[in-house]
TrEMBL record:
E.C. designation(s): 1.2.1.38
Gene: argC
Function (record text): Catalyzes the NADPH-dependent reduction of N-acetyl-5-glutamyl phosphate to yield N-acetyl-L-glutamate 5-semialdehyde.
Protein name, UniProt field: N-acetyl-gamma-glutamyl-phosphate reductase
Domain of life: Bacteria
Amino acid sequence: MNIVIIGASGYSGAELAKLVATHPHFQLVGCYVSAGSADLHKPLSALYPEHKGIVDLPLQGMDENAIANIAAQADAVCLCTDHKVSVELAPQFLAHGLKVFDLSGGFRLADAHLYEEFYGFAHQHPELLAQAVYGLAEWHSEALKSAQLVAVAGCYPTASLNALKPLQQAGLLAGDQQVIINAVSGVTGAGRKAAIGTHFCEVSLAPYGLFNHRHTPEIEQSLQHPVLFTPHLGNFKRGILATIYATLNAGVTLDDVSSAYQVLADEPLIRLLGANQVASIKGIENQPYVDIGWHVKGQQLIVSAAIDNLLKGASGQALQCMNLNAGLAINTGLV
């Protein structure tokens, strides 16, 4: 596939540009930013020196001719844009017959009404929500093979759902008990745009989005189980560590939990650390994996899951979806 990335100057966009540019079967044919961007016309490697000689394409502007130009040269577009921008752009590219891989939250929720509550805007294309395939790659591989519009899963949900879905699928979680997810992310999860809260000297480990973070309905929609999700901002660059507390049904043992996780045993980008093991940021930084470890005491379960928020939590997961869509192995270009 010939790929265009829109929003290529951001952390996820730049990471994805490198992955596509070095992919054995994909070709990066364009990198775009907003027409008023200060980075317009600069080569991407000028913003990210580590991409020198890998992605030297200039950043083009999304002007009035951009849609037609992209449609003439690309088979698919990756939207590394704000949620509202993705909702505006995706229908235009779909109308040109292009495949759309959206890394924003613009099409992740099935219920359009939730966008006003959790995203702060009315969804202008609710008809596309039913069409979008949720891009949690290991769990929706068949649907992703024929998808035209992919809503790439969020970073926190990727860690949380891979840790919880095997247990829910096996019927091990107590149905009347809320699952508690405490997760901390590196500052790159907040994006590249400067803000006082993510300034190096101001960053401090702290929770945010209490009771109203937009990833809560995304997790609950896929898990079909109530959760209390609390994200935290950590004073490190990249990575997510989720510590998850759940109540198991009476009689469930550690061996039952370990057996449930075997549904993921053959997935090349899932690393089951095993019982009485813990995941860590160090273990997954700059890696495309999910690491999962678990502990059981009585009916109480604690699971730790770690991902790199820019790889498995964003661009790496997008590439997995693109691989499946192109009929390739899920880990092509990632390991």
